[in-house]
Structure formats: C-alpha cells, structure tokens
Amino acid sequence: MCFSSIFAYLMLVEKGRRACFKRSPCTCCLNIPDIRTSTTGDFGIGREELVALTKNDDVGGLEQYGGIQGLECLLKTNLEDGINGEDADVVKRKSFFGANTYPAEKSKSFLTCLWEACHQDISLIIFIVVAVASSVMGLVTKGTRFGYWEEGGNVAVVVMVNIIVKAICKYSQSLIHNVKEEGRNMKVVVRGGKQVEVSICDIVVGDVIPLNIGDQVPAYGILITAQSLSIDTSRVNGDNNIVSFHASSGASRLKPGSEIADGSGTMLVTSVGICTKSELSQDIGNKTTLEEVLNEVATSIGNVGLAAAFIVMMVLLLRWFMYLVLIFGVKTKPRDVIEEVNQIIIIAFNIAVAAVPQGLPLAVTLTIFSATKRMVADNAFVRRPFACVTMAVVKNILCDKTVLTLNEDRCQPGVKEWVQLCQRDGVKVRMVTRDNLQTAKAIGLECGILDSDADATMPNHLFDGREFGELTDDRQRQECAKRIKVMAWCSPDVKLLFVQALKQSGEMVAVTGYVTEDAHALQQADIGLAMDIRGTEVAKESSDIIILDDSFATCVKAFKWGRSVHANIIKFMQLQLTVNVVALTTNFMAAVFYGHVPLNAVQVLWVNLIIVALVPLSLVTKPPADELMLGHLVKPGQPLKRYVKWKRLVFQGMYQIVAILIINFQGRSLLKSYNRGHAIKVKNTMIFNTFVVCQIIHQVEARKKGILSKPKKWITSNYLFMGIAGTILVSQFIVIEFLGKAFSTVALNQKEWQFSLTLGFAEMLFAIILFVKYLTHRN
To answer: What membrane topology does the annotation report for this chain (predicted)?
Structure first.
C-alpha cells in the first residue's frame, strides 16, 4: 500500500512537470534567471540569441541558459514529447522564429511593374501628356469622327503599347526562378508525444527530431540523445570526415546538410532557414555590365530624340508664326491656331517616338528567358535570368576538386579538354581543395590546370590555403590571388577570401560550391554555381545557377550559353540603333524641310516590336557553337562606344537614309497622276515599306556565316528565321493593303510595290559587299 502511494505521487509529479513545460517558459521549474526581453515575445529566448547559440560550440554558451534543460523550458517544448503540435502553436513559432525555408526575392506584381513603367520613364510621361493634349485638341477642332481616332488615338495606342511592353519586361525579370526541393521532402518529428510526418518546410524551432542512419539534418539544432551516433559533415564544410557525436557534454551542435552515417539520436531544433539565411553576406548588387549598357543606350538615344523633337517643334512653330502672321499678316481664328499647334505636336511626338528603343527590352527579355529554358536541357538551371549574361564576361572560375573529379581514384572523363578550352579562350580555371599540397598538385596536373611540374613550382601557382588566410596585407593578397592556379588546404573561409581578393583586384569571378559553408562565397562571387546532386539547400539558395549533373562540362556549357546570349544581345542593340538612327534622321530632316514626317509613331512601333523583337528569336534557337568561346568581348567598365560597330552602323544607316531620299525625290515620277495630298500618302507608304524590308535584310547580314559558301545548309539551318521573315512580309502586305487607317498608309499598285521592294532588297548587295570584306580580312 505504501509502495503504491509513493508510485502514484511520483507519477503526479512527473505529469505536473510535463504540463509545466507545455504551459509556460518554466523559469519556476529550473533555477535559471528570467532572461525574457522585448525581443523574446511569448518565449524565453529570441531568435537572435538562438542564432548566436547555434554558431557557438562551447558549453558555456549553452550553460548561460541553464543547459539544454533550460533551453527546453525557454522554448516551451519537451525533450521527449516535443511541442504540443497544435496548429496555433506551430503558426506562432513560424511567425516568431521563422519558417524552415529560404524565401526568394519578392516578385513584383504586374500592376506594380505597370506603375513603375508609367512614372519612372520621363519620355513616357511626356507621351501621355501629348496623347491627352492631342486628343482634346483633336476633339475641339475636328470632332469625334476624325481627329480623336486617327491622331490622338494613334498617340494613345503607341503610349499604351510602350507601357505594357515595359511592364511585361519588368514583370518577367522579377520572376526569379527558385528551386524548392525541400517542399517535396518529408521528415518525422515528435509532437505531443507522437511521431508525425511533416514537410521540412513545416519544421519549427522547438521541434524534437529523431535521427537515424541515412537521414539528413534538416535545420540547425542541439543534440539531445545519441546512441553510437556518427555524422558525415562533408556536405557542411567539405571535410570528408565521419564525426562521432555525444550528447553528454551538451555542446554538440548540428548543422543542416549533415548526414547520419551510423547510430541514432534525437535533436532539438534551435534555428530554421530564414534565420540562417540572414547571416549570409550583404547584397552586393546584381546589375550586370550589359544591363548598364542597355540602360545607357535607351537613355542616350531617348534624350537625343526628345531634343530633336523640341527643336523641330520650335522651328515649325516659329516658321508658322513668321510666315502666316508677320509676313502675310493673315488673321487666324483660335480654332485654326489649335489645329496647327496640334499638328506640330503630333510631328514632334513622331520624332520622339522614333528615338525610343521600344523593341530592345522585349528582345532582351525574350532572348534571356528562351536561353535559360534551353539551358535546362544542358543540365544548367538558371535561378537569376541575367546570370547567363554575366557569365559571358566572367574570366575566372574557382572550382572545387569534387567538380573536376569522380572521387579520390581520378578526373571526370574529358575534363582536361574542357579545362583547356576555357584556358585557351581566356577563362582561367583555378582549383580549390581541402587536400594536401601533393594531392592538389597531382589533380591539378591531371586536369590540365597546371601545365607541368615546372609550372607547379612557379611562384604562387600552387599555394597553401592556410598561408593565404594568414595574409594581412590586402594588396599582397590580391596579387597572390591573381597568380594562384591550385590552392590546397582551402577551407570555406579561405575560399571566400580568395573570391574577395580576385574581385577586389578587378576580376569577375564564378565559383562552384555544394556545402552549406560555401554559401558566403557563392553569394560574393559574380556567378555562384551550386551543385544539385551533392549540394545542400543552403548552397543552392545562395547560387545564381544550379548545375544539375554536378559536372564541370556543364559549367563550361553555361559559359558558352552566356557568350551566345551576350553576342545576340549586342546584335539586337546594333539593329535597334540602326532603326532608331534612320527613323530619327529621316523624320527630323523631313519635318524641318517639308513640315511633315514620313514615318509615324504607329509605323515605328510596328518596326520595333515586330522586327526588332520577333526576328531575333530565330538567333536563340541554335545551340551555342564552340567558336563563341573565342568571340571578342568588351571588358567590364568599357564605354558604350566599345560595344557598337560604328562603321557598320554608319554605312547601313546611310544606305537606308539614301534609299528613303530616293523615294522622296525620284518617286515623284510614279506619282504624277495623283493629287498632292494622295501623292504624299503614297510616297510615305513606299518609305515605310522600304524601311521594313531593309530591317529584314539587316537581319540576314547578321547571319552571314555560310550564306555564300554553303547556301543550302544556311537555308536549312535558318528555317525559323526564313519563316519569321516571310510572315513579316505577308503581314506587311496586309497592313498596307487592308489596314491603312490604323497605320496611316494607302494601297500601292504593282509598280509602287516593285520600286519600294527593290530599294529594300538592294541592301542585300551592300550586306554581301560587307561579308566579302569580312572574309578577306579574316583570311
């Protein structure tokens, strides 16, 4: 009877103790100070303290909270039964301590992008004002039937299309791809005394997680129990070590990515994904050199267009006032003044629109996203779209030994050839490894990073990472980093210093990584390449591109894709500049000398969005060729003039301007039977027709390789381009013959079609001359 009473009493005490853990922070149960502050909320400890505790491996850091039992109390959990498992409690823990995910940068909504497109571009603001003013003046002077729909309406359509295109481009670029593999992984946790299966994303601080052979540690935590527990930490820090863990000391910290090699145990989760992500390096900016150049192109030519439009408007207003009022003394009615001013504003607007590179942003966006989609087939998943453009100008790649080798026994098949391809084309391959100097040297020689034994003995070519980490002089470290080919004894911290030293010396760097502690280096590099098979989620979330097959060959293919996209975008920019220069020059000269413009805003919009945006798609359908690795690239920081082939721009622009002038003057012989008003419309339609055909021929010149030596192969390999070009010509015929009101054109007869098309296709001869000159120069 006495024994039964004692047993019942002990059971009541234990039940009360467990209830106390679930009910409160339990500073009453343990002799530890109440350390709650305004940052700890309903819990006895805040997430900042937990992150610091996770990073601190000594026993004292934990003892200040009363050991693991004190932490159990502060987190309102139980080391045996876990949290209570109620939905409200899980939500509260996610809200306070964060979720076990690595959230992507917030994507902008389409409405936000639409608003930014409206108010960030001063030219579009001006266009909106012009559209409203022109519509109001058109209604006042000509009524709803004619003035609103043809003049003000055209202006409004062009403005809206510009805004929508810019918004689409902004929205597309904000949709950053993110790999979310953790959402499909499940993990057993203890909640309410029962083992339940939850998504890794739903693991929260305070959870108790059983650990068994083959499991991966899903979050940061502290070991509770261990039975012959051994853990492989190679995916955390790159060390190929199996570490034995013991719970008795209370100082065993576990990091995500570790794998249970033997034994079993349990752990208490102390930090989850969002907290550990915040430790990483600050944002160092993601705007690429090419992005800056494209912005410079748009800004420069837009400013020129606005200046030209203002000059024309002032000239026309002054000329109209002087001739009509001062010279002839004609009295004008207010209605006539409004009508004339409206026409002058429309002319100035057409000149300004001619200078806006409307098709370039769309062409760039389509090209990048088309390339990133096709790169997946080559086992490269691009998480940040502009990363593939940045790859083009990266001249250094820091590779882990594991990316170059199969194991410790040898290199990946063909890796030496891939390394030599990179070295030949200006990309320096540098290897980092935690192996000793002799092993690092042997692998470097086998992979072709070191040319010979003599090369390995050259100053700083083979370097000890421990010595590199001890260097204190920044300049000495930068000079040393530029010479290093192979670095042995390289820890993740030294790898980060290596990346920083190269960047500080003016180099652009790509770096590979797969372990958790590589996250800093992956973020600091210009391009972070994470391995998918062996890589941890922390490494992947810190990267720009994920290599799906963990192969160095795929890294090289990513370089080739980057240079292909870079070269294509430069071609698009060249085409866009040609369109803008010709349209702006033609409209400016016609406005000053004749008081009207041959190419209106809708026609220029058609050329930009149909030809400049759609035709380039045929370039990105081809896989990148090996010779792209040899292409000439402009170094980072070079001015705009280094990107543009000015001679070609001048010659092609001059040809198109001369062709338009020929129509303007010599075309009169075809227009004698028309009255003056209709003759001007026919002449402008022929100019528009020739202008469109010239841009198609310009695209042919961009694909000049093989057009003379292997014409049949050229046609078969450019079938998509031929199809798009044919579709545009058919569409052009429909526009001119049936959509005259929308485009301000009139139907042409057979002779007028022949005359305008002949001038357009004659640019082919000019392209052939340039190509022959190119062949002669190359030979």
So the answer is: Multi-pass membrane protein
Say whether both 522 and 661 belong to one domain.
no
DSSP 168-205: HHHHHHH------GGGG-EEEEEETTEEEEEEGGG--T
Is 9 domain-assigned? no
Distance CA 586, CA 656 (A): 9
DSSP β-bridge partners for residue 527: 510
The predicted structure's pLDDT at residue 166: 75
Q: Domain range holding 413?
A: 378-561
Q: How far is CA 125 from the centre of its chain?
A: 27
Burial of 762 (0-12, 13-18, 19+ CB in 10 A): middle
- The span from the CA of 82 to the CA of 203, in Å, is 12
Q: Residue 679: exposed, middle, or buried by beta-carbon count in 10 A (0-12, 13-18, 19+)?
A: middle
Q: Which of 400, 518, 544, 550 is the catalytic position?
A: 400
> pLDDT tens digits, residue range 646-663?
777 888 888 899 888 888
pLDDT tens digit sequence for 96-105:
988 887 655 5
Residue 591: what residue type? A
Residues 399 and 392: their CA atoms lie apart, in Å, by 17
Q: How far apart are CA 778 and CA 768, in angstroms?
A: 15
Over range 181-187, report the average pLDDT: 58
d(C-alpha 708, C-alpha 65), whole Å = 80
400 is catalytic: yes
For residue 266, give Cα distances in angstroms to 217, 256, 537, 566, 569: 10, 14, 22, 51, 54
Structure tokens at 355: 């200078």
Q: Please compute, for residue 772, the number of CA atoms within 13 A of its CA located in the half-sphere on the CB side.
A: 6
Residue that terminates a domain, selected from 561, 593, 628: 561
Longest dimension (CA), the chain: 129
**What are all long-range contacts of 105-109, with beta carbons under 8 Å and residues at least 24 apart?**
105/176, 107/174, 107/175, 107/176, 108/170, 108/171, 108/174, 109/171
8: left (phi over 0), alpha (psi -120 to 50) or beta: alpha
For residues 344 and 317, the answer to whether their CB atoms sit within 8 Å is yes
Number of other CB atoms surrounding residue 714 within 10 Å? 18
Among the residue ranges 125-134, 408-417, 727-736, the one predicted with the least confidence is 125-134
Q: Is 394 helix (H, G, I), strand (E, B) or coil?
A: coil
Q: Is residue 721 part of a domain?
A: yes
Q: Burial level of 475, CB count in 10 A (0-12/13-18/19+)?
A: exposed
406 is a domain residue: yes
Mean pLDDT of 470-475: 90
For residues 100 and 86, what is the distance between their CA atoms, to the nearest angstrom?
A: 18
pLDDT at 325 over 70: no
Euclidean distance between CA atoms 219 and 237, whole angstroms: 15
Q: Residue 699 in 3-state DSSP?
A: helix
The last residue of a domain, from among 561, 594, 621: 561
